[in-house]
Amino acid sequence: MAVGGFAVNEPVNGFNGKITVSVVVTCIVAASSGLIFGYDIGISGGVTTMAPFLKKFFPSVLRKQSEAKTNMYCIYDSQVLTAFTSSLYIAGLAASLVASRLTAALGRKNTMVLGGCTFLAGAAINGGAANISMLIVGRILLGFGVGFTNQATPVYLSEVAPPKWRGAFNTGFQFFIGIGVVSANCINFGTAKHTWGWRLSLGLAIVPAAIMTMGALLISDTPTSLVERGKLEQARKSLIKVRGSDTNVDAELAELIKSSEAGKAAQAEPFVTIFERQYKPHLVMSIAIPFFQQLTGINIIAFYAPVLFQSVGFGNDSALIAAIILGLVNLGSILVSTGVVDRYGRRFLFIVGGTQMFICQVAVACVLAATTGVSGTKHIYKGYAILVLVLMCIYAAGFGWSWGPLSWLIPSEIFPMKIRPTGQSISVAVNFATTFVLSQTFLTMLCHFKYGTFLFYAGWIAMMTIFVVLFLPETKGIPLDSMYSVWERHWYWRRFVQGQV
Ligand code: BGC
Known about the structure:
Helices cover 74% and strands 0% of the residues.
């Protein structure tokens, strides 16, 4: 088998857990936390192109846009607007780092509730914004909200899911992100026709926030988190609830207590422990995976598809149609991932998805270079625009079954209990930091590099696929508390972990 793709003999510990109605419902409710992140991703792009919104808060941008007569790659190049949109990511970055302490001290569930409430407050302030300060305060609160939930939810899902189906359950988070994106696109379509539409679009964010907060209030915390906080009786109840009343949970509970005690005995600061040599492989993954996820260029494709469609004269609704088509393809492909991630494994999906995205990015660059000319000023014909959309759909499917859901799954499943929240925090912080830097630069990049931008992302996709082949061990089916075995058997990482666990 390939160098990184050794077969791991799954540690047999007898508590693999079966799928119960309770665990399915609990995980669906928890995964709905993805709604608020998705809603924000979907709503912000549309709102920042609504003229009444720009007139009220960013009049200079509106003026510049109406005067601009540039090539098709440059029409939306505005630093002020991107700074506003990405302020959320800076707030989210700070919150995700704080969240590791909160999830350890208050539990995963309470951190999700806190995230939902903060997001709800931000949505209300944004919907009623009378001036730019309110808009920014609201946006920062939204950032805190997604910082908390994006940190706590994937960990929650990985800890509650039966190990054998952990991948499938965890993909639910990305699925709800996708539902949030598509719903927000549809809402923007309806509201864009009204002068107060932006208010409604921003204010309606309270709906997904209310749904996920109420959901989070109803579920119990993960057995792992309850054990860590010394609530052993509640942990047993929570285990029985998710594993089924006819299941003997003693072995699993004993294993959780053992891991928790080992972590506590070390008494070390998690942000220091995580930098120890033995956790180098884990740390590298928690940084590389979210960093690479953003360098797939998913957000530039999502942004560019509607612009391209408008520029070829598909009519006013074209932007929405392009966004919805991509959104639906993305949703469908996440379900494919749900179905195969625990059967064929994470590496298989990363490699298939990566290859597919690479081919599509190169093909899009070639079609654009051939049809719009090197400077991007030549008109692109409808037939070619449709070809580009088809390529983008194949690309979106590739992302949907690989880097989309797996970037939340991997960091949440590779760490030992004592540093799991810290690892997930670092991962979310890297995701937000990379999104921030790319969104600040990609419009300028598109304007200057033109079709070459797509080749830039293709290069990164090639690199990340090779990285997965060489360095990412297969984690499917391995119980969280036995995860050390995948590093011990890895051709490269074993030198870091041997003799340590
Ligand atoms: C990514 C976002 C992206 C979204 C698309 C998430 O996993 O982190 O940057 O916009 O997927 O659905």
